[in-house]
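Lab notebook, design round three. We kept the backbone fixed and only want residue identities now. Task for the bench partner: fill in a sequence for the structure below.
Input structure tokens:
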């Protein structure tokens, strides 16, 4: 199955455009005449998994044309300028025939639905759990999916269903009026089946059918209006947000030619565990050489055992306020009650966040709390220039401005740590707002990977200045968090910097190894785990849509954040 590879840095660039123009066009659905979606193309045998990378920018959906042929769409947009930017991006990824589709409200009619939930477009959605409520529809905006059932001719009909839905567990369900051209009824494609009307009940449907583009002129078009799904404004954080942070090493190594693999093969060849050409292509002989080294090298087996038994490094203990904030995703009600007892600006700002309802016309309590938090944070401001007019009074209509102002408050409360879950639940807004050198909570780690654990066990064993460099370590940990959650396309200068760091690091370590044959016994397992992790990290970033050269730089950047504090004395 062909996979759609997107450049994540371009995704974030487009997200920033979305956020920058969002406020100016916030009311277009109410006052405008049309909305927009991207017609990616028409395909035979396409399934949702083929477009997973596109879902970082919006929900992907399909409207059946005939048989196995479906027309694939991306997202919903209120503003034409934003939609055109997304269209350019889609075309750059290889979908040269993608077009901008307009959805005219006059061709639809006002209809009532009952909204059940809001989900992020990248989340796996358990559609079956919603279908217990009735026929499921969605409408979209940006990266959020609003899930609803319907259809109802008037609010009275919708209200009559609320008690039934709440007994089913949908306690936050509420009626909503929407234009029918914005609705999309979920189908087999949404559930992961290929684009075919027989997908749900036909034994002939093949999951591995090739993704094939179909020319529009070869199709007999069906009558009727196409439907668009426009995503909603963001809702409060779902309780299961932590699943997004589960990080696993790539299961399969790519076989493209690259320097990281060539370096690993050269090391294995030097150690007599590889007798083939150092092609830079990961193959069975490379895997066998790795396995044989791991089994036979006593120092490696020692460190692998230690990595499994030693306790993980203890993070700096969070303050009481930070612990309350960390509990917002799992228990917002309890967290809110505790935040009310705190006097800090950050506490009031997060209480404002918990109370914020993006679907409401007014958020008076959020407005009051955020303005009070700003006053507290900036009451003793002595900087040359404030990042915004902190003396103004603000009303909040979406998460982008709320989080932007939250970042300003964090900038003044420098002893506070930014919670990791904010990056997970609001990646676009956080990419825009948190660009300064903030203290960021440890967001899970590449250290869950076996090779990373072995590498760090060796590195700590070789560190002769264990009590020093805590400031450098904290800075690099924050850098690693950003590389994990919000990686960006590296510049040419960064590529050169990481290439130079890699060369200097190994020059220093090899010099130390040459001083004494005993030193070499430590360096051998260090080299193996380093090069294996280097390759895995490259695959991790290529899975996110980065090119191999960019993935190489990002992988080396992660290795630097892990190793540099332990090797300062070697690198002098």
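Proposed sequence:
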């Amino acid at each position: 199955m062909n996979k759609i590879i997107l450049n994540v840095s371009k995704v974030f660039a487009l997200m920033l455009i979305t956020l920058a123009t969002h406020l100016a066009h916030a009311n277009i659905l109410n006052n405008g005449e049309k909305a927009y979606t991207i017609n990616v193309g028409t395909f035979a045998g396409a399934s949702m998994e083929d477009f997973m990378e596109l879902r970082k920018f919006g929900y992907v959906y399909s409207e059946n044309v005939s048989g196995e042929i479906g027309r694939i769409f991306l997202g919903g947009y209120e503003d034409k300028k934003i939609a055109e930017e997304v269209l350019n991006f889609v075309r750059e990824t290889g979908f040269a025939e993608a077009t901008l589709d307009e959805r005219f409200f006059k061709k639809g009619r006002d209809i009532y639905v009952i909204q059940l939930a809001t989900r992020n477009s990248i989340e796996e959605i358990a559609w079956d759990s919603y279908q217990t409520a009735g026929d499921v529809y969605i409408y979209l905006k940006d990266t959020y999916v609003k899930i609803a059932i319907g259809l109802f001719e008037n609010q009275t009909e919708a209200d009559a269903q609320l008690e039934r839905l709440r007994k089913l567990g949908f306690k936050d369900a509420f009626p909503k009026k929407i234009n029918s051209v914005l609705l999309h009824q979920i189908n087999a494609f949404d559930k992961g089946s290929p684009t075919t009307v027989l997908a749900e009940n036909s034994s002939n449907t093949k999951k591995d059918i090739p993704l094939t583009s179909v020319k529009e002129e070869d199709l007999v078009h069906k009558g009727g209006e196409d439907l668009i799904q426009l995503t909603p404004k963001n809702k409060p954080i779902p309780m299961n947000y932590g699943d997004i942070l589960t990080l696993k090493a790539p299961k399969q190594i790519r076989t493209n030619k690259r320097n990281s693999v060539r370096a690993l093969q050269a090391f294995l060849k030097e150690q007599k565990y590889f007798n083939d050409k150092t092609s830079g292509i990961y193959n069975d002989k490379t895997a066998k050489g790795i396995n044989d080294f791991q089994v036979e090298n006593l120092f490696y087996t020692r460190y692998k055992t230690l990595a499994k038994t030693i306790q993980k490094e203890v993070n700096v203990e969070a303050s009481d306020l930070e612990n309350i904030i960390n509990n917002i995703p799992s228990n917002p009600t309890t967290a809110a009650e505790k935040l009310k007892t705190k006097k800090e600006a950050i506490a009031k700002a997060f209480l404002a966040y918990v109370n914020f309802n993006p679907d409401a016309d007014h958020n008076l309590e959020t407005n009051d709390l955020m303005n009070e938090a700003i006053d507290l944070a900036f009451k003793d401001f002595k900087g040359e220039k404030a990042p915004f007019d902190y003396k103004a009074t603000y009303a909040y209509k979406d998460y982008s401005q709320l989080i932007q102002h939250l970042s300003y408050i964090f900038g003044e409360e420098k002893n506070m740590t930014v919670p990791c879950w904010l990056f997970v639940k609001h990646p676009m807004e956080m990419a825009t707002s948190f660009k300064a050198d903030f203290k960021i909570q440890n967001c899970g780690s590449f250290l869950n990977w076996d090779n990373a654990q072995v590498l760090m066990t060796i590195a700590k064993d070789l560190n002769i200045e264990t009590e020093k460099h805590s400031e450098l370590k904290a800075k690099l940990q924050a850098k690693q968090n950003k590389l994990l959650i919000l990686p960006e396309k590296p510049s040419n200068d960064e590529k050169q910097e990481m290439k130079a760091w890699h060369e200097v690091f190994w020059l220093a370590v090899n010099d130390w190894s040459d001083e004494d044959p005993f030193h070499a016994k430590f360096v051998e397992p260090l080299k193996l785990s380093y090069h294996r992790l280097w390759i895995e990290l490259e695959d991790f970033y290529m899975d996110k849509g980065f090119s191999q050269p960019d993935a190489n730089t990002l992988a080396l950047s992660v290795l630097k954040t892990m190793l540099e504090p332990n090797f300062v004395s070697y690198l002098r």
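Keep this in mind before ordering anything: The chain has 21 helices and ten strands.
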